[in-house]
Write a structure and sequence with these properties.
Distance between the termini: 39 Å
Structural class: mainly alpha
Protein name: TIGR03086 family metal-binding protein
Largest sheet: 2 strands, antiparallel
Shape: globular
Domain Mycothiol-dependent maleylpyruvate isomerase metal-binding: 8-120
Radius of gyration: 15 Å
Pfam family, one: MDMPI_N
InterPro entries: CHP03086 (IPR017520), DinB/YfiT-like (IPR034660), Maleyloyr_isom (IPR017517), MDMPI_metal-binding (IPR024344)
Oligomer: single chain
CATH class: Mainly Alpha
Order of helices and strands: HHHEEHHH
Number of helices: 6
Number of strands: 2
Strand order of the largest sheet: 1-2
Amino acid sequence: MNELLTMLRDATGRTSALVESLGEDEFGLPTPCSEYDVRALVNHLEWGATLFESVAGDGPFVPQKEEFTGDFRERAERMLAAWERPEAWEGASEAMGGMPKPVVANLALTDFAAHGWDLARATGRSYEVEEDTARAMLAFATQMAPMGRERGAFGEEVAVPGDAPAFDRFLGVIGRDPAWKP
């Protein structure tokens, strides 16, 4: 089995469980992703699942809409089903500017894990990532950081000690402060 798909499945499942645990009273809370409160961040995750499903099937770029629907798990399951097809990993995505499909899958993993952590921090919950997954995300984020910042997907790097856990260092690379509190 594709190791990246396993990591994506784990992160998406963890994030889905977190989204489903949210109460309406938490939707207005601020998140470490400063442009989003909890509700807007869940809306962003719903859009991301739809986008990454489309891209896996060589579909078009799907613009984000501001319409929270509350169906992240269903969208995430459709996205994972699309990535389970071997052809989803072949070639490049025209919708994502010619990016190789495995890079797009890494972006999905980065998005779901980072925003899962954002939601957990905003709501006082925990969000754990397997050490192997954290190391893989750190390596990917470090390589993609210049382009990620240029395209506005990553913030400016936050200094994190070199001996910090890999997930904390990953968060720092993408512009999150692992010590963030609401």
